[in-house]
């Protein structure tokens, strides 16, 4: 279970980017929904230990997120992944794997399997600088799986993919769910949340406005309507 | 290891860094104290000609760079380590036009005690002459040479000639120019200096030098002239005149003589001098230096 | 700890693929080949060849060190390639130290390649195997290790451009600093001013100690104590710099 307890992240000049955020996530697929700049990426960065909360704690199965042990349980895919351009896909997978302490020639099969899963097996020995945006997205996905993690944290995983790519990746996510992993993904695309998420969290201006089942949230209406309602209701209160 | 460094509180981190810095300084101190390698005598490596070939025309830069390392060796002369002359020769061979090494040598070499460096003055003068011949015009070379000749060799005749050259070198600061042109106007020196310029004037074939010497003689005469007039003034009026104009006003002299070098005369307590509050003639700066 | 090795190995592998590095190495090798020409110029003067050869290795490895030290680390942070790595069970300090050793390895490879060319030429010109030249090249390598540590330290809290300028400046000062102290004494500066010059002398990296090229050229041995102290000095200073860099980098928001 990933648990957030009164997490606040404030910058000196910008003010609070995430404010008093409390949430416990233990469902297979949790979608974090919000506009750009709402604080989704900040929350995710705090979960993987890239940022430290100003106050409050984030734990993964009880381990604080800043501890290295927590990172063994997770696979992280950043938004707009940047790679070492002159590495090949296989080399990159090996690098990520070695950082978990896994080494040896036997692992090569695993990398190939993962690359096949995300659909870039054919390009595995080409340098990353030749990859298209979609291919990079897929590689980002693959490296998140290299340590066979229980939790997957994906920041805008379907960004930049064409319609076929999006469908393929959604199928991969469903497979991962079947394998028993827990997936926490950031997105601003309502349609994706409706399609693959079990629960969702609505975040707006750094605050968690709703967390719970997607079906209950919608309650008969479209997700878009309900999302707009929630946000507008918050803003009406906030202005006062 | 270092991973645990990250976990230390800020105060301890600072302490650790300070300890590291302490170690750094300690090792440096010990290194300085350790006995150094001994070079065989006469270990010269690169020849100046080759340096000039490969330095892509950066003679001045390269020479300056070597010069920075050479300058402190003057101190080593006090310890009987005489690398300085050969290194100086190297620098001046790489760039003969770089003037500072010559000037520096002329100034500092005579300060080395004769017991340690018997040729100190002789070398200084030779280097100075070399500098005058080869280097870019630098007022310091003739100026320091003049000082050396006057103080070390008591050769006033050569000194005044070098002071003259210095005064005419472009770039000479005002104070040095004033000093050079007015060397010898004091009562005690005046006759002697006048005599020396007279000798120079009479023994030279060079018209420029003749004219120059004459100018010095003329102005020294003017000092005498003013002082004689002041004495007359005192005899007549019971007190010395305050300014040379007073002499004219009271009819002792028809007019204040014009200094060929452009300075303004003063007369105080019967002694003639030059006005220090006015800018040095021919200098571009309006500010007194 | 193994992570440091992984990152170092990876850094080495990646930087070796950098075309710019090859360009610089090619230039350096060309230059060393040219030293034969200098030999002809001075009628086979071996000291000449050694002098220019060692200076060349020094100059080019310095350029490589400057380039790598200031851009490699900074690029990782700026281009966020570091996101992937730091979300793995690798601490930031392991990443930084791994990067440092990786870059030193690159310098080592460069020194070996250029050194081999140098020894080849010296032997060709009849100088036998220049043992002290080996020492000189090693000392230069040590200096570069210090240099890279400095570059990384500065890069951890400023941009590439600033670190290039600042590191170059410190590098220059580091060489002038010994002469500066002697000059100060010679001019007769004393008291507080002299203490200030002394402070600069001790705090700024004192780089002249790594210059044993003159020894190599004149075939004079380096005293063993001096060698050990130079090693100790380097280790201490690198530790100081890297710790500072870690401190800054840990707190950096990326």
- How helical, in percent, are the residues of chain A? 25-40%
Structure classification of chain C: mainly alpha
Globally, the shape of chain A reads globular
Shape of chain C: globular
The oligomeric state is heterotrimer
Hey, roughly how much beta strand do the residues of chain C contain?
under 5%
Amino- and carboxy-terminal Cα gap of chain A: 36 Å
Q: Sheet bearing the most strands of chain A, described?
A: 6 strands, mixed
Q: How would you write the strand order of the largest sheet of chain A?
A: 6-7-8-3-9-10
Overall average residue pLDDT of chain A: 86
Give an account of the 3D structure.
The complex is a heterotrimer of chains A (240), B (289) and C (254). Chain A has helices spanning 40-48, 68-71, 89-98, 107-118, 133-144, 163-178, 190-196, 214-218, 223-239, and strands at 2-11, 15-25, 29-33, 55-60, 63-64, 74-77, 151-155, 182-187, 199-204, 207-213. Chain A is α/β, with parallel strands linked by helices. In chain A, helix 3 (89-98) crosses helix 4 and helix 4 crosses helix 5 (133-144). In chain A, 42% of the residues are buried. Chain B is mainly α and 289 residues long. Chain B has helices at 2-7, 10-33, 48-54, 59-70, 73-76, 84-94, 100-108, 120-134, 140-151, 156-168, 174-181, 187-203, 207-237, 244-249; strands at 265-268, 271-274. In chain B, a hairpin with a 2-residue loop joins strand 1 (265-268) and strand 2. Chain B starts with a helix and ends in a 15-residue tail after the last strand. Chain C has 254 residues and is mainly alpha-helical. Chain C has one domain. In chain C, 81% of the residues lie in helices and 0% in strands. Chain C contains 10 helices and no strands. Chain C starts with a helix and ends with a helix. The model of chain C has no long low-confidence stretch (mean pLDDT 84). Chains in contact: A-C, B-C.
């Amino acid at each position: 279970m990933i648990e957030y307890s009164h997490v606040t992240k404030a910058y000196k000049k910008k003010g609070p980017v995430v404010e008093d955020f409390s949430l416990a996530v233990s469902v297979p697929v949790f979608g974090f929904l919000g506009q750009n700049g709402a604080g989704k990426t900040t929350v995710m960065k705090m979960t993987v230990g890239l940022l430290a909360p100003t106050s409050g704690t984030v734990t993964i199965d009880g381990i604080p997120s800043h501890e290295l042990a927590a990172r063994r349980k997770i696979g992280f895919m950043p938004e707009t992944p940047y790679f070492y351009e002159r590495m090949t896909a296989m080399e990159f997978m090996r690098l990520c794997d070695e950082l978990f302490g896994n080494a040896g020639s036997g692992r090569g099969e695993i990398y190939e399997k993962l690359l096949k899963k995300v659909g870039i097996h054919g390009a595995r020995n080409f340098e990353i600088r030749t990859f298209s945006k979609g291919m990079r997205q897929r590689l980002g996905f693959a490296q998140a799986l290299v340590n066979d993690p229980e939790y997957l944290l994906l920041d805008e995983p379907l960004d930049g993919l064409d319609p076929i790519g999006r469908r393929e990746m959604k199928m991969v996510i469903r497979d991962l769910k079947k394998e028993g992993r827990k997936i926490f993904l950031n997105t601003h695309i309502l349609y994706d949340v409706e399609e693959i998420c079990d629960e969702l969290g609505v975040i707006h201006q750094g605050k968690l406005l709703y967390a719970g089942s997607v079906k209950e949230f919608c309650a008969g209406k479209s997700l878009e309507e309900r999302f707009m309602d929630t946000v507008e209701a918050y803003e009406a209160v906030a202005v006062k | 290891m270092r991973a645990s460094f990250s976990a230390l509180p800020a105060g301890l981190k600072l302490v650790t860094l300070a300890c590291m810095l302490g170690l750094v300084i300690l090792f440096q101190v010990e290194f300085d104290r350790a006995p150094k390698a001994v070079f065989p005598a006469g270990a010269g490596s690169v020849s100046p000609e080759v340096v000039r070939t490969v330095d892509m025309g950066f003679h001045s830069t390269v020479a300056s760079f070597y010069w920075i390392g050479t300058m402190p060796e003057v101190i080593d002369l006090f310890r009987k380590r005489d690398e300085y002359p050969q290194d100086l020769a190297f620098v001046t061979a790489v760039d003969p036009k770089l003037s500072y090494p010559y000037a520096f040598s002329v100034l500092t070499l005579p300060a080395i005690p004769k017991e340690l460096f018997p040729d100190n003055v002789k070398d200084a003068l030779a280097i100075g002459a070399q500098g005058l011949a080869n280097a870019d015009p630098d007022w310091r070379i003739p100026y320091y040479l003049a000082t050396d000749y006057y103080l070390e060799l008591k050769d006033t005749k050569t000194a005044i000639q070098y002071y003259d050259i210095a005064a005419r070198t472009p770039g000479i600061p005002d104070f040095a120019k004033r000093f050079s042109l007015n060397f010898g106007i004091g009562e005690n020196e005046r006759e002697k200096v006048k005599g020396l310029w007279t000798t120079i004037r009479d023994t030279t074939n060079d018209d420029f030098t003749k004219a120059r010497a004459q100018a010095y003689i003329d102005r020294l005469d003017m000092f005498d002239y003013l002082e004689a007039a002041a004495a007359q003034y005192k005899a007549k009026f019971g007190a010395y005149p305050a300014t040379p104009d007073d002499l004219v006003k009271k009819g002792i002299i028809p007019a204040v003589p014009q200094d060929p070098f452009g300075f303004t005369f003063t007369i105080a307590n019967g002694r003639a001098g030059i006005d220090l509050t006015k800018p040095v003639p021919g200098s571009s700066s309006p500010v007194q230096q | 700890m193994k992570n440091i090795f992984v990152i170092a190995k990876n850094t080495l592998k990646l930087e070796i693929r950098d075309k710019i590095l090859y360009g610089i190495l090619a230039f350096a090798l060309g230059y060393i080949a040219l030293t034969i020409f200098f030999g002809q110029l001075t009628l086979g003067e071996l000291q000449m060849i050694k002098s220019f050869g060692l200076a060349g290795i020094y100059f080019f490895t310095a350029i490589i060190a400057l380039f790598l030290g200031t851009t490699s680390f900074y690029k990782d942070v700026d281009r966020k390639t570091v996101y992937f790595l730091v979300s793995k069970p690798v601490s930031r300090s392991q990443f930084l130290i791994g990067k440092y050793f990786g870059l030193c390895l690159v310098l080592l490879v460069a020194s070996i390649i250029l050194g081999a060319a140098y020894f080849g030429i010296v032997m060709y010109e009849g100088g036998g195997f220049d043992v002290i030249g080996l020492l000189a090249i090693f000392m230069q390598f040590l200096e570069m290790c210090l240099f890279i540590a400095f570059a990384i330290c500065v890069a951890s809290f400023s941009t590439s451009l600033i670190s290039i300028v600042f590191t170059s400046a410190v590098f220059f000062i580091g060489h002038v600093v010994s002469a500066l102290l002697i000059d100060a004494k010679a001019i007769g500066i004393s008291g507080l001013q002299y203490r200030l010059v002394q402070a600069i002398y001790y705090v700024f990296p004192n780089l002249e100690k790594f210059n044993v090229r003159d020894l190599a050229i004149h075939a004079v041995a380096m005293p063993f104590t001096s060698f050990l102290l130079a090693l100790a000095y380097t280790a201490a200073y690198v530790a100081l710099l890297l710790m500072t860099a870690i401190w800054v980098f840990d707190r950096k928001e990326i």
